Amino acid sequence: MSRIGLAVVLALGLIATPSVFGQTPPRRTCLPISERAGRDVGCWLIVAEPLGQLPRSEVFWHLDTFPTRSAAEAAKGPRGTVVEALGKVWLFTIREGEWRPSGGVRIAEVGPIFVKAGDQYTAQYAEGISNPGDVTPKHRHPGAEVWYTTAGGFCAEAADGKTYVGTAGQGVVIQADHSGWSMMTLVATGTEVRRSLFLVLHQSAHGWTAPAPEWTPKGLCNK
Fold first, then answer.
1. Is 186 helix (H, G, I), strand (E, B) or coil?
2. Does any domain span residue 122?
3. How many domains does one find in the chain?
């Protein structure tokens, strides 16, 4: 598949169901996948992979599938992580553009993702699954958030005043701003359950996500 990428600004940490009859939307924090307990819809944290200093200021998220976990482990190289998610075995790798593993099926190359030279980074990998109309509360990340969607779609409103649309088979990158942080909120669109893999490539000195109470979204995804 050809290189997929959109330069954008941030996140997906919490999920809220739209208000009904004026009630306050309930909020669900991202949970470790070990606490899934058979549930489907939600934000599920799979693994946090320390990457150390990255060799370039511009990297890409490479997504490849393998028939078995052992095959993926055999092909794994530096800054590679084997993940079982959305019914498949994946090799996720943070590398330069045009890189390929030995074997597997190439699904996507998403980027570029901009990082700061000399800083230590961690890759937080997760699944985001939401029903149509579900909305994430406003939040921030100390780095870029990157999505690859396999089903459904979403619209993200970022603090830069722009909206970004992701659909099945597309990658979206929400870049951090000059401060190293970014803010956004996301709504699942269409009629199909949204299923996304997502990466927060964040500075290891900070937690992967935090609330953003100072920002007021304009509801651009609802227009």
1. strand
2. yes
3. 1
